[in-house]
Each structure stands twice: as structure tokens, then as C-alpha cells.
Amino acid sequence: MPESLLENEHQLTTQQANRSRFVTMCRWVVEVVNGRVKRDFRLFRHVFNNRAALHLKNDFRISCALINKFHVVIENPPEALEYVRIAKDRLSLENHLATYVEQANLNRRRVNFQMINSNNPHLDRFPQLTITDLKRLALGTYQLKQATSYYGEHIRQTGIYSIEVNNTLDDDVPLILGLNNYLLRGRIKSRHVNSRTYHTYLLISKDDAVANTLDTIVGYCCSCLIGKRTVGCCAYIMTIVWYLSWGRYNDVTAPASALDNFFQEYDE
Q1: Dihedrals φ, ψ of 166, to 5°?
Q2: Which residues of 41-56 are buried (b: 16+ CB within 10 A; e: fewer)?
Q3: What is the pTM of this model?
Q4: Helix, strand, coil percent values for the chain (each to nearest 5)
Q5: Closest CA to 256 of 159, 148, 169
Q6: Dist. CA 182–CA 213, nearest whole Å
Q7: Exposed/middle/buried for 212, CB within 10 Å: 0-12, 13-18, 19+?
Q8: CA distance 178 to 199
Q9: What is the DSSP letter of 103?
């Protein structure tokens, strides 16, 4: 089972978030199979009748046998072993950036951050990545699929993707986070609670030797429930990385944007 919050805490620890990611990576195929059973057999879509419980196991075995015989077999993607290796390597990795954000209370500080937008020349140093790179960062495709929707919600009001940047780190920070880096902060609305906003942080290297590679992203964290994880990343972090490294170089639009003015046009 995924980890639960400790008492009086609002975020999972790094180790808890990492272990939860391991669980979801293993449970994904189980959920896919359950989805197939419910999709193809109406009997399992609803609450099962107690009178039919006597033959429930046989019904389920028959449905699974039919799926095994006639449906496409679920197979691991070609990069699955690479994702597993990365996950194992990062399982015990501490999130030093998250520790620094908490100690410096950056979620409440604004003086060191300057508002910019995605067209600002300052972001020319941000790596230009491929979809394969983004999948490797997230260790899958789920967060990548969510990024488009989050991006659409973020730009609908002003049409501008706004981010905050901080060039100056405190004197003791480079000892932990490394030298020649700059800090980006984004703010994204929660998809679960309308009044809640999460802060995402990205530590980006200025070293030309790692330009346009995943190594440019030195660290990341978010103020959401699983934002401290180092095995993969949350969907909020992926939204920022997806747009700055790939989306702004391609023709991307907010999903279902045609519906934004639908009711207004109807009223007229």
C-alpha cells in the first residue's frame, strides 16, 4: 500500500514518497487488468449481488480466461528495465533542495524572487529535452499526460505561463546543492482543491557541459503531498519541466479550449 501521512504532517517524507512510487509502479498493471475486466464485463462494473456471490470466483476466472485468450497481452515498454534501475538507484537519495526550501522558508518569501514568463531570455539556459527524456524523469507517462491539463489551467486567465526566478543563493547553500546553479519557482493550482496553490522548485545547472540533458536539472521539489520524492517527480513539477523544455518549442494549446466561451456564445 502507498504510505500515509504522519500525524500533524502535510507532506510525505522523501523516503515515504519514494516507497509510494515503487508501489504505484507495481500496481499499475493490476489496475489496467481490473479496468479491462470492468470495461468488458458488465457484471463486474457494479456492486455484486449477494445471491450471485456463490459463483463469483468462477465468473471472474472465466472473464480472465477470455481476456487472456482474445485480448492483447500487456507487456512492459522497452524502457521498463531502465526505469526500474533508475528507481532503485534513487530510492535512498535525499532531497536536499526540499530541505533547503523548508529551512529558508521559501514558500513564504518573495523578496528574492522575480516574476518572469516563459519567453524571458533568462530561460535560454533551461534544457531543451525530448519526450523520451521527460519519460525518464517521471519514470513513466502518467505525469506527462497530466502536464497538458495543468498547463491549460495555468494560462487560461492571462495567456502567459508565469514563473518566478531566483539567481542568488545563500552562502551556505552551494555546499549542499552545488555551485553554478540557479533556482526556478513556479506556482500551480491544485487539481483537487480550487483554493490551494502548490509551489514547485527546480534547481538548474548553468554548466555548458550538461546543456540540454537531464543532468541540467540538478534537483526538484514541490509543496504537494508527494513533492519531496526523488524517484520520479510529481505532475506539478512535470508541468513546469514539460513546458519549458519541450512545450514552448512546439505548438501546444490548452486542451478543450474551444469550450472556454461555449456558454457565453450560447447565451448571446
Answers
A1: -130, 120
A2: beeeeeeeeeeeeeee
A3: 0.81
A4: 50, 10, 40
A5: 148
A6: 16
A7: middle
A8: 22
A9: H
Lowest mean pLDDT among 53-57, 149-153, 202-206: 149-153
Spell 153-165 as b/e; 16+ CB within 10 A means b: ebbeeeeebebbb
197-205 and 162-166 beta bridge pairing? unpaired
Query: H helices of 41-139, where?
Result: 56-70, 80-90, 96-104, 131-138
197 has pLDDT over 70: yes
Segment among 6-10, 109-113, 216-220 with least mean pLDDT: 109-113
**What is the length of the chain?**
268
- Asked if 163 contacts 241 with a C-beta cutoff of 8 angstroms, the reply is no
Q: Which residues pair with 185 in a beta bridge?
A: 164, 201
State the number of CA atoms in the 13 A half-sphere of 157 facing the CB: 7
Select the highest-mean-pLDDT range: 45-54, 72-81, 85-94: 85-94
Cα 3 to the center of its chain, rounded Å: 17
- Between 190 and 113, where is the model more confident? 190
Q: 108 vs 231, which has greater pLDDT?
A: 231
What is the C-alpha to C-alpha distance for residues 147 and 154, in angstroms, rounded to an integer? 10
pLDDT digits (tens, 9 = 90+) for 218-262: 999 999 999 999 999 999 899 889 988 898 888 777 666 665 566
Higher pLDDT among residues 166 and 23, named by residue? 23
Spell out the alpha helix ranges (H) of the chain. 14-40, 56-70, 80-90, 96-104, 131-138, 142-155, 174-177, 235-245, 262-267
From residue 264, give the alpha-carbon distance in Å to each of 76, 86, 195, 267: 46, 49, 24, 5
